[in-house]
Amino acid sequence: MDATRQAPLHASAQAGEPATAGRNTATELKLFTWKMLIAAGVVGTLFLAWQVADALLLVFAGVLLAILFQRIAGLVQRFTGLPQGWSLGVVLLLLAALLIGGGVLMGQSVVSQFDQLSQQISGAVQQLPGSLRDQIMKQGQDASSWLNRLQTVASSVMFFLGDLVVVMFTAIYLAASPGVYQRGVILLVPPRGHERAREVMDVMGDSLWKWLIGQLSAMAIVGVLTTAGLLLLGIPSAPALGLLAALLEFVPLIGPFLAAVPAILIAFAQSPQDALWVALLYLAIQQVEGNVVMPLMQKKVVDLPPVITIAAIAAGGVLFGLMGMFLATPFAVVMLVLVNMLYIEDKLGEGRHFPSEDKA
Fold first, then answer.
1. For the ranges 86-95, 192-201, 344-353, which has the lowest average pLDDT?
2. Which residue of 4, 109, 163, 172 is 20 to 30 Å from 51, comparing CA positions?
């Protein structure tokens, strides 16, 4: 009797095993298909981003400029009580007036300074060894070579102006309606992650703003110190060289060395002793900037690890050229915020290391 009852149960169990196995196989196949689709989507997105990398870099530059516009407009709004839109309009008008007025008042002087700088560099070339100087002069006397260079420079200037227009309009539209674009990005995240996405974007904005403050301050200090030092040493074209040093300070580590080259060449045209003093001047300014100015600023701004900075600049230069080098450091700031908040905090459950809580 027991054997009779157990037989159907045994048969039923055997009949259910293929069905369960079939369902498991279908589930695994579905999961594998989803993983393959996600992987294909990620690869496709990365490939598309690589193809339009130059445009994305311009947009990122526009984001940086938009943060600058928006934060300055916030200060204007705080002190004047004007709405955000009117405050942004005031900032843009003041910027336009500054650029136009500065161009009119200082344009002729700056052009004269850079013309003198060009003449001084030409004079420095004359001081080079004979074989090297003859080779450079031969290249300069080649009319077709000069024509090709002129066409290349003209093309580069046109592309630069076009890129500048794209960056400016991107910055203006982003600064005018930041909430619209922030909501657009947040909507790409599942609903349960909306608050976290908003928090991450706010921290990224604060980090980039603090980095900008530190960078602009360092540029101003380096420009003033360089101009004053070169004037004291009696080096021609000191204001132009100081402006060049300030602009190239935006590219950390590499920029100061590039800025020192024309100054040393001009000083060498006067005497080897002047060239030595100029080299020591640039070295001293970088020591002051790196060991005094930046440590004081880093108490209030983003403290980016030096190794990360070097790696970012190297990778940006290799992958995207000069524009990549200029934007490598702020891009590294964004990536460090994402890694710390989305991986170290959310996945590992540890405290944030960059930016620290008191700086965020």
1. 344-353
2. 172
